[in-house]
Amino acid sequence: MKNVDNMSNVKKHLDIVFQIYYQCGITNRLIVIRDVTCLLFLKSLEDYPDYYLDNLHFDHALFRYHENYNWSSVWNMNQDDAKELFFNEILPFLQNNFKDFLNGNLILADGIGRLSSNDFYLVIGKISDMFIYELDGNPINEFNISIYDDIYETLLEYLPNAPKSCAYAPKHLRRLLCELIQIKSTDKVYDTNMGCGSLLIEAYKSMVVSNLPPYRMDVDDDGLRCARKYSENLETDYFRQTLALEGNEKDGTLKWLCLMNFYFHRIGLLQSQFNGFVKFNNQRDDMYDKMLCIHPQNGYYENFTTVQKHLKQGGKAAFVLPQLFLYGDLKKIKRLRKTLLTQYVVEAVITLPEYEFYPFTRLASAIIIFSLPEPNNIEESKVWLCNLKNDGYSNDRKRSKTSDNPLPILLDAFRNRSELDTEWFESKNIPLQDILGNDNSLFVDEYIDNAKEPEEDVDPFEIIENLVQLRDKLKTGIEELKLYI
């Protein structure tokens, strides 16, 4: 079996699929993502055992009276009939069954008129080739079925700018957030800015790792712990059905993509955000052990309101926000910062590299880790401040992976509250009282730079002497220039 750590071969096939649509004049990537998602869905219905679908609480009897609404029928038909069946029957059928859940159409108008029958058949062929190539021609089974996870994660990387910034949160950052607050399989998790569910998927992976014995663990390209590839079994399948991974998303398209993201990762669909698609009788309370949010642009205020209402006593949160929140003078920002520092325990603030969210935004951003403790003396705590200069990726528009893997070192430093000055990051523990006495400022450079480079005594007479010398040089230079006039 081929190494699929970076899924580069899947991406090559998907690049060709997108190119086929572009050449037909269909440049909206959401249309391509919709079509590929639906084709993958049809294929999965033949690959997933019935008990998987039962565990997902997915009604596979939905297709009982439409026996030709499947992957094999589309694959084995002639080109014209395959295109006609998919666009004129299967897509409208799926839209009709998702309409109550989506409160609208299944993404967008379809663009069928511009995609020729031959082009559509090429798309089907490329999707089939992804599975054949990655699995060396072996059939799908319970051990390698997780290839759907990787293919769909790669597909969602093509999301355009418009849907939401969460799509541009790099995978290593999403995983770092989950590791910083140590998400466990028993935690109830909530994402206040869910989008297509990518952050919740990383939370799920952290849950898996927390439950695995060492011999089934591996490390990813960033040096972070992960499950070994293609190590599915009945135990992990049962485990997925008990997880609570919930979130908020108003956009119907993104909510549908989140549903399919959970589906292709075979995570139980009995989550509050999918109410309306599955029969969901919510027996859970609306309080959460861990809360997440990636919102590196303005408009993040309401996420704090959600935390105040729904974070459990003893719970933790990891937020990515604009650095402006750390020091901004607007009354609303100052009020939120004061609330955070006086009613919660701010455990850490980590500033991120400039190009972390490129091309979505270049606004400076930071991670804030905080918790709602049992009643104690918050005044005596310290805040671990860190300036992350290198996250293992080039700090430019390319964001290429480097040979460095600083994130495991960062995690270890945070857990031990170590004060370090490395080529990747600087960190220091600052007493909360010092922060409260500094207008509640959490601006990391203000504390770390002052600690590292204390102000030197300045001799005013030396300054005057230097200015006199500079004045004399300027006067001489002006006189020399006059000679050339």
Features:
485 residues; alpha/beta; Rossmann fold; 8-stranded mixed β-sheet; two-stranded antiparallel ribbon
What does this structure look like?
The protein is an alpha/beta fold. The protein has two domains: about 1-160; about 165-460, Vaccinia Virus protein VP39 (Rossmann fold). Helix content is about 45%, strand content about 15%. The chain has helices spanning about 10-25, 30-45, 50-55, 70-75, 80-100, 115-135, 145-155, 170-180, 200-210, 235-240, 250-265, 300-310, 325, 330-345, 405-415, 430-435, 445-450, 460-480; strands spanning about 190, 215-220, 225, 245, 290-295, 310-320, 345-350, 365-370, 380-390, 425-430. An eight-stranded mixed β-sheet has the order 4-1-5-6-8-7-9-10, with helices on both faces. Helix 12 links the parallel strand 5 (about 290-295) and strand 6 (about 310-320). The chain starts with 7 loop residues before the first helix and ends with a helix.
Question: Which whole number gives the mean pLDDT?
Answer: 84
* Residue share in helix: 40-55%
**What is the assigned CATH homologous superfamily of the largest domain?**
Vaccinia Virus protein VP39
CATH architecture of the largest domain: 3-Layer(aba) Sandwich
Could you give a short account of the major beta sheet?
8 strands, mixed
Number of contiguous helices? 18
Structural class: alpha/beta
Instruction: Name the beta content range.
Output: 5-15%
Low-pLDDT windows of residues: 1-6, 451-456
**Net shape:** globular
The H/E string reads: HHHHHHHHEHEEHEHEHEHHEEEHEHHH
Number of distinct beta strands: 10
**Taking strands numbered 1, 2, ... along the chain, how are they ordered across the largest sheet?**
4-1-5-6-8-7-9-10
- The first-level CATH class name of the largest domain: Alpha Beta
Q: What would you report as the Rg, rounded to the nearest angstrom?
A: 27 Å
Query: In CATH terms, what is the fold-level topology of the largest domain?
Result: Rossmann fold
| Domain module count | 2
